[in-house]
C-alpha cells in the first residue's frame, strides 16, 4: 500500500512511476517546486480516494525534467509555472508558454 508516502525518484524513473500511478487510477493533485542548497526539489502529488502518494525528484542547477503533461494534461500549468518562477527546463510540455505564463518583473525570481 502506498498511502501517504514520499518516494524519491530519479529523472529517468519519473515518467514510468507516473504512468504506473495513472494506470492504478490516481489523479494528479499538484506539482510543487522548492529551492534547496544543492539545487531544487520537485514534488509530484497524486491522490486516489483518501490516499496520497508523493514522488520527489531532486535536481541539480541547470538540470532538465521531462514533462508529464502527455499523461496528465493539466500538468502543463504547473510545469510552466515551475519554468517561469524557478528557471527549471521542462522538456516536451503539451503547451509551453515559453516563460510567459506569468507577467513578472524579474525572470525566474526563485532561481
UniProtKB/TrEMBL annotation:
Keyword terms of this UniProt record: Oxidoreductase
Catalytic activity, EC: 1.6.5.9
Domain NADH:ubiquinone oxidoreductase 30kDa subunit: 13-90
Gene3D superfamilies linked: NADH:ubiquinone oxidoreductase, 30kDa subunit
Molecular function GO labels: NADH dehydrogenase (quinone) (non-electrogenic) activity; NADH dehydrogenase (ubiquinone) activity
Superkingdom, taxonomy of origin: Bacteria
InterPro entries, per database record: NADH_quin_OxRdtase_su_C/D-like, NADH_UbQ_OxRdtase_30kDa_su
Record-linked SUPFAM superfamilies: Nqo5-like
Oxidoreductase recorded as keyword: yes
Name of this chain's protein: NADH-quinone oxidoreductase subunit C
Species this chain originates from: Christensenella massiliensis
Amino acid at each position: 500500500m502506498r498511502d501517504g508516502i514520499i518516494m524519491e525518484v530519479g529523472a529517468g524513473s519519473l515518467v514510468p512511476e507516473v504512468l504506473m500511478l495513472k494506470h492504478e487510477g490516481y489523479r494528479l493533485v499538484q506539482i510543487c517546486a522548492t529551492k534547496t542548497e544543492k539545487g531544487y526539489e520537485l514534488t509530484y502529488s497524486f491522490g486516489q480516494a483518501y490516499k496520497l502518494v508523493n514522488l520527489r525528484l531532486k535536481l541539480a542547477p541547470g538540470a532538465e525534467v521531462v514533462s508529464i503533461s502527455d499523461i496528465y494534461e493539466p500538468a502543463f500549468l504547473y510545469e510552466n509555472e515551475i519554468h517561469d518562477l524557478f528557471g527549471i527546463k521542462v522538456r516536451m510540455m503539451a503547451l509551453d508558454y515559453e516563460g510567459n505564463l506569468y507577467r513578472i518583473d524579474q525572470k525566474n525570481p526563485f532561481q
